[in-house]
Amino acid sequence: MYKRIILKLSGEALGADGDTLDQPTLARLAEQIKTVRANGTEVGVVVGGGNFVRGRTLSALGTDRSTADRMGMLGTVINALALQAALRQAGVKALAMSAFQIDGVTKFDRELALKVLEEGGVLVFGGGVANPYFSTDSGAALRACELGAEAILMAKNGVDGVYSADPAKDETAVRYADLTFNAILEKDLKVIDSTAAGLCRDNGVNIFVFDMNEEGNIIKAAAGEAVGTLIHGGKE
Q1: Are 42 and 3 spatial neighbours (Cβ–Cβ below 8 Å)?
Q2: Which of 87, 128, 179, 218 has its CA 20 to 30 A from that of 14?
Q3: Domain containing 49: what range?
Q4: Other residues' Cβ atoms within 10 Å of the Cβ of residue 64
């Protein structure tokens, strides 16, 4: 079982049936995170913003990349506040933090973040790294390194690990039990962006990729069960 983790959730993971934010979904996520914390693992959550806007998509449609990415960052802060509310409703001490200053929202402070974790609270991070051209994967990697997390649990929608090819298009695709960061980069496997992979590799933070849609998988992943693919810095 991990002592301290960063759970990475996509923005789409917080919605359902066309809704940008779905309260039953948020409640289910909050209950799983509550169980993980009760089991003894300290938890920080990094949320994406794709349920509101994707910077790269807007950029491809003509919006300049810097503006598009900042729009996406605002979406992640909304999601962080929504998950904070769901956690508190579930009886969990939770604090949302933004990577950039917003009145009424706590700005990221490493010392405060460590104190909240050590006192049994759950942190929810929005705002990415507060700069354009960086994904929320990089935000998760940065927070994991800053806070001394052992691993990032990369929760995917309907994908139960890392495959040699797209399993929806190639029936011969094989799921890896584990991979090194160097292999991820060399094979150009699109499971995490290269900036985040390099940062985790260089700072000894593992990544575990799993399907969050399977009931209880967040709890299982935090307990170290083999329900996905482990990415690490060791040998092949």
Answers
A1: yes
A2: 179
A3: 4-232
A4: 10
Instruction: Give me the CATH number covering residue 195.
Output: 3.40.1160.10
Instruction: For residue range 214-226, list pLDDT tens digits in order.
Output: 999 999 999 999 9
Q: How many domains does the chain have?
A: 1
Secondary structure of the chain in HEC code, one letter for each residue: CCCEEEEEECHHHHCECCECCCHHHHHHHHHHHHHHHHCCCEEEEEECCCCCCCHHHHHHCCCCHHHHHHHHHHHHHHHHHHHHHHHHHCCCCEEEEECCCECCEEECCHHHHHHHHHCCCEEEEECCCCCCCCCHHHHHHHHHHHHCCCEEEEEECCCCCCECCCCCCCCCCCECCEEEHHHHHHCCCCCCCHHHHHHHHHHCCEEEEEECCCCCHHHHHHCCCCCEEEEECCCC
Within 10 angstroms of residue 14's Cβ, the number of other Cβ atoms is: 26
CB atoms within 10 A of CB 49: 27
Bridge partners (DSSP) of residue 98 are 107, 126
Structure tokens of 222? 């935090």
Between CA 235 and CA 46 the distance in angstroms is: 28
Q: Quick one: pLDDT at residue 166?
A: 84
- Measured between alpha carbons, how far is 32 from 145 in angstroms, rounded to an integer? 24
Cα dihedral 21, 24, 25, 30 in deg (nearest 10):
110
With tokens 């769901």, the residue in question is 86
Q: Bridge partners of 7?
A: 45, 153
pLDDT of amino acid 90: 98
Query: Which tokens belong to 14?
Result: 């917080």
